[in-house]
Write a structure and sequence with these properties.
347 residues; D-Maltodextrin-Binding Protein, domain 2; 14 helices; 2 domains; alpha/beta
Length: 347
C-alpha cells in the first residue's frame, strides 16, 4: 500500500508541475484563481467530484460553476468539492473509488469511460458522434441519450451529463497530409479500448501512454504524433513541440459526468433536484462554449505558427472504411440495435 501511495503522490505532483510549467499556474498554486469565495465548512453534504483536466478548458471549468451555483441555490447545504488536475488520482483509480462511494462523482474523459461500461464507448467510435452538431443531437434525443445515461447503473454509477474538450485530430512533429504520411508516425493514444481498436483498424503505429508521460515522449522523439484535440494541445503547450495539426474531426472528446447512484439517492429530494438541474444547465452551456473555445484555440495556434491541414476525401474514406471494422467489434459490446439506432439518427 505504501508503494502505491508514493506512486499516486508522484503522479499528482507531475501533473500539477506540468501544467504549472506550461504557463497555466497562478503563482505557487495553479488553482488559486478558482478558490471559492465562501466558507464550505458548514455544509450538510459534500459532493467530492474528480477530473483529470485543467479548468482552463471550458469543459472542466464547469465543475467550478456547478460548485458555485449549487452552493447558492441550496443555501449552503451542499458543497461540490471539485478536484481537477488528477488531485484524487488517475482515472482508473478514481473509477474504482467511485463505484464504492469513496469519491461521489467524476468527470471522466470519454476515452476512459468505456472501461466502466462498453456502451459508453459509443461516443468514441470514429465518425459516429463526430461533430458538435451530432453531439447536441445525441444529447437531445431520448433514444440516443437514455441508454447512454443508464449504461453503468449495474456498477452503481449514473451518467448525469457531459461536457467536451473539442474535436479529435493529430498533432505531429512533421506534416501529415495523407494516410501515407500517417503510416510513418508513432501516435500516442489514450489508455482506452476503442482507441486501440481504431488504430489497429487503420493500420497505424501507436503507443499507449499515460498523459503525464506525453511531454517527455514528444520532446525525445519516442512519439512524433499525438491523438488529441486543438484545445488540449494548445492549452497544454503540446504545439511548442508538435508544430503541425491534421484536422480529422473523427470524434468529440468528452468529460462524462458520473455520479455514485447510491449517494445521489441518499440526498434529500430538494437538494438532489437542484444538483441535477444545475449540472444539466451548466453542462449545456459548457458544450456551447467548447465550440467557441476550439475556434479561438485554433486561431491562436495558427498565429503562433502551427500549420493546420486536412486529409483528402479519399484518405478520409480509408479511415471510415477502417471504422466499419471497429463498429463490427463494438456492436457486440454496445449492442447492435443501439449502435444501429444511433448511427441512423445521427446520419
Amino acid at each position: 500500500m505504501g508503494s502505491m501511495r508514493k506512486i499516486w503522490k508522484t503522479f499528482i505532483v507531475v501533473m500539477c508541475c506540468f501544467f504549472f510549467t506550461a504557463g497555466l499556474g497562478q503563482g505557487a498554486d495553479p488553482l488559486a484563481k478558482w478558490q471559492p469565495d465562501f466558507d464550505p465548512s458548514g455544509a450538510k453534504f459534500t459532493y467530492l467530484l474528480s477530473c483529470v483536466g485543467h479548468p482552463a478548458i471550458e469543459g472542466v471549468a464547469v465543475g467550478y460553476k456547478i460548485r458555485d451555483r449549487v452552493w447558492k441555490e441550496t443555501g449552503g447545504q451542499l458543497y461540490v468539492d471539485f478536484r481537477p488536475l488528477s488531485q484524487l488520482g488517475g482515472e482508473k483509480d478514481v473509477i474504482n473509488k467511485l463505484k464504492f462511494g469513496a469519491v461521489q462523482g467524476m468527470m471522466s474523459s470519454s476515452v476512459a469511460a468505456a472501461n466502466i461500461a462498453p456502451t459508453l464507448g459509443i461516443v468514441n467510435l470514429p465518425y459516429v458522434v463526430d461533430t458538435f452538431e451530432k453531439l447536441d443531437a445525441f444529447r437531445a434525443n431520448s433514444e440516443t441519450w437514455e441508454p447512454f445515461r443508464d449504461a453503468a447503473l449495474s456498477k452503481n454509477i449514473q451518467v448525469l451529463d457531459f461536457t467536451g474538450y473539442g474535436s479529435y485530430g493529430w498533432a505531429t512533429t512533421k506534416p501529415v497530409k495523407s494516410m501515407a504520411d500517417a503510416a510513418g508516425v508513432n501516435f500516442r493514444i489514450a489508455q482506452a479500448p476503442v482507441n486501440i481498436d481504431s488504430y489497429k483498424a487503420w493500420g497505424l503505429k501507436f503507443a499507449v501512454l499515460p498523459w503525464p508521460d506525453v511531454p517527455q515522449a514528444l520532446q525525445t522523439g519516442v512519439i512524433d504524433g499525438l491523438d488529441h484535440t486543438p484545445i488540449v494541445c494548445n492549452i497544454s503547450k503540446k504545439f511548442t513541440v508538435a508544430h503541425y495539426y491534421t484536422e480529422l474531426n473523427y470524434a468529440q472528446g468528452l468529460y462524462v459526468h458520473l455520479i455514485n447512484k447510491k449517494w445521489l439517492s441518499s440526498l434529500p429530494e430538494d437538494i438532489r433536484t437542484t444538483l441535477l438541474k444545475v449540472v444539466a444547465e451548466e453542462s449545456e452551456a459548457a458544450r456551447k462554449k467548447t465550440k467557441e473555445q476550439q475556434e479561438l484555440q485554433i486561431a491562436a495556434a495558427k498565429e503562433a505558427g502551427v500549420t493546420f491541414m486536412t486529409l483528402s476525401e479519399a484518405d478520409v474514406d480509408i479511415m471510415k472504411d477502417g471504422a466499419e471494422k471497429v463498429y463490427a467489434q463494438w456492436a457486440k459490446r454496445i449492442g447492435p440495435d443501439y449502435l444501429g439506432k444511433v448511427r441512423t439518427i445521427l446520419k
